[in-house]
Amino acid sequence: MSPIRKPWPNPRALRWKIAALCAAVGITVAAAVGVLVHQLTFSRDQEEARHVTLNLLKEEVDSHRSGQPGNNDQDRTPKVLPPGLLSQLSRGDGPFTHYSDTGIDAPERQGPTMWAAERVDGHVVAVDTTLQPQYRKLQSLDKHMVLAAAVVLAVTMPLAALAADLPARRLRRVAHTARRISHGDLDARIGAPPPRTPGNEVADISASVDQMANQLQGRLQDEQRFTADVAHELRTPLAGLVMAVGLLPEGEATELVQDRVRAVRGLVEELLEVSRLDAGAEISEPQEVPLGHVVAEAVRVTGAGADVTVTVRRDAVVQTDPRRLNRILANLLANALRHGRPPVEVVVDGRDITVRDHGPGYPEELLAHGPQRFRTGAPERGGGHGLGLTIALGQARVIGATLRFTNAAEGGAVATLTLPADR
């Protein structure tokens, strides 16, 4: 059995962004401090070398004026001088100093060197001091500073990631709760208490999301209660109206009144169904059914005829509630026939059922937020109460199916119902 591999850290995660920011700040500070220490040390070494070289020049000049040789009975004046020092001597007698980091083209004068020269009685007296020991010390100091910065970064980066994990974990919890709420779980809460002191942004976000969820749940519950109350209050007078219409004499006016009464009765029944779905009172009664046959029967019952075609690519026997499945398909077909244009294509592919028309497609608001009751979307899709798709989505949740709404690339609304695997 192969070991479980842990996923690589996501570089886009907040904790790693904070760790990377801390690393960048640390590298910047270490580089700035390193450059500053390097320059200060280098300047100090140069000043010390300049002071020593000027003292040697003074001794050499005094020896030259007194007519006595310099130290160790040897003339310290180099045979070859750097161009920068010669340029200064051409403008005056001096004394002048000059630093050369590469030396001159002489084997004994290579490397960083401090020069000093003065013109005495028409002769140039010059001395030099090598800075090789100081240069090696400076290189060693740079290496130690780089090593110290690497050690500090190796320690601080994991600590920064751990410190950033706490707010990142709380933000992930906020995002998870927000997704649960958007998927219909109105009881989801973060459970974070309001911040006692201002300035805690994560606590403010958590408390705000909980407050928003409470207000949203309250408004939705008020809307659901209003819908249920309206449907129940209309049901009794509507029953009396249906009986009264049945007593009217036959005629064109009677048929018109009966048609409107049937429309009102259908609306009240849909409102009652929506209120039952909102209350969670609907219970699925699954049984094994041949999906292709159920879909073909549902299309036949609609009486759409040649306007609807059924294609079974892969048939399947599934466990579902056939009555609720028929209700979902009836609403999807009614929406396609009312708001779209024929032909309406119904395709069965395993556990997926696709209903597509060739009309203007679903409006952007429906694709973004799902079907909303009493909202029909774009005017070009015709009139209606916006309850058909709402009921279809609610019944799909009851049977554990997934209902997705998209638009085809070449035009037309596409509704895809995916039935769950058998338990």
Automatic annotation (TrEMBL):
Compartments where located: Cell membrane
Q: Which residues form the HAMP domain?
A: 168-221
- Give all residue intervals belonging to the Histidine kinase domain: 229-423
Q: List the coiled-coil residues.
A: none
SMART domains for the chain: HAMP (SM00304), HATPase_c (SM00387), HisKA (SM00388)
EC number(s) given by UniProt: 2.7.13.3
Catalytic activity from the UniProt record: ATP + protein L-histidine = ADP + protein N-phospho-L-histidine
Q: Does the keyword ATP-binding apply?
A: yes
Q: Name one Pfam family in it.
A: HAMP
Q: Where is this region: Disordered?
A: 60-109
The record's annotation in InterPro entries points to: HAMP_dom, HATPase_C_sf, HATPase_dom, His_kinase_dom, HisK_dim/P_dom, HisK_dim/P_sf, TCS_sensor_his_kinase
UniProt entry keywords in alphabetical sequence:
ATP-binding, Kinase, Membrane, Nucleotide-binding, Phosphoprotein, Transferase, Transmembrane, Transmembrane helix, Two-component regulatory system
Provide the primary localization: membrane
Q: What class of enzyme is it?
A: transferase
Question: What transmembrane ranges does the database entry give?
Answer: 145-164
Spell out the molecular function terms from Gene Ontology: ATP binding
Q: What superkingdom does the record give?
A: Bacteria
Please give the name of this protein.
Answer: histidine kinase
Taxonomic source organism: Streptomyces gamaensis
